[in-house]
Specification:
The protein is globular. Strand 9 and strand 10 form a beta hairpin. The protein contains 6 helices and 10 strands, in the order βαββαβααββαβαβββ. Helix 1 crosses helix 5. It has one domain: DHBP synthase (Alpha-Beta Complex). By secondary structure, it is of the alpha/beta class.
């Protein structure tokens, strides 16, 4: 049965996030609010948790999982970033953007795209999500919490608990999130390519 943590959206209680971080360390899945919608997260180095995350969402291994990082420096550890990409990422992070980048060897093969060897990476601007990454002590693999065979992400922590209490280790209630997804930008080509339009002002990145 999942634990249910109610935290302040701007100043989340560190002791509760520490407990959630320990559940992740023990191999659990945790639902957490982000700046786009609720996501399910797991430790990057946990194969069993990655498999459980995919089963919960009904995803195959060709679906990009997203790596949630604390900052730009952490992105550089898990993705190959040249000077041009670095300048773009510095301008864009943190924020409601997911970037497709070439994965480094630090990224387990089960997380990267099997043929392209790419990874989705983002730095959220939501304080609860950032606090959980900090409590876990490392980036977290994640996917938007959209029930299998449905199109819309869940946005109510109690609803998430009612549906997934037996599949999650914890639900972190940080209030409702925006339901618009992140904008996905592929940075592996000569120029940034918009894969999915969502949140964020593209003109601020020079892409409008």
């Amino acid at each position: 049965m999942a634990q249910f943590f109610v935290v302040h959206p701007e100043n989340p209680q560190a002791r509760l996030l520490k407990q959630a971080g320990q559940l992740l360390a023990d191999g659990g899945l945790v639902a957490v609010p982000t700046d786009s919608s609720y996501a399910v997260v797991a430790r990057l180095d946990d194969k069993a948790a990655a498999d459980a995350l995919r089963r919960l969402r009904g995803l195959d291994d060709r679906h990009h999982l997203t790596l949630l990082c604390r900052d730009l420096a952490e992105i550089g550890h898990f993705a190959r970033v040249d000077n041009k990409q670095y300048r773009f990422l510095k301008m864009a992070t943190p924020g409601p953007w997911t970037f497709i980048l070439e994965a480094t060897r630090e990224v387990p093969r089960r997380v990267s795209h099997p043929s392209r060897k790419t990874i989705g990476i983002r730095v959220p601007s939501h304080r609860v999500a950032l606090a959980l990454i900090e409590a876990a002590g490392s980036p977290l693999m994640s996917t938007t919490l959209i029930p299998e065979d449905e199109d819309e992400p869940l946005n109510d922590a109690q609803d998430i608990f009612d549906r997934y209490a037996n599949q999650l280790s914890a639900v972190i209630d940080g209030g409702a999130c925006q339901l618009e997804p992140t904008t996905v930008i592929d940075l592996t080509g000569e120029a940034p390519e918009i894969v999915r339009r969502g949140q964020g002002d593209l003109s601020a990145l020079g892409l409008a």
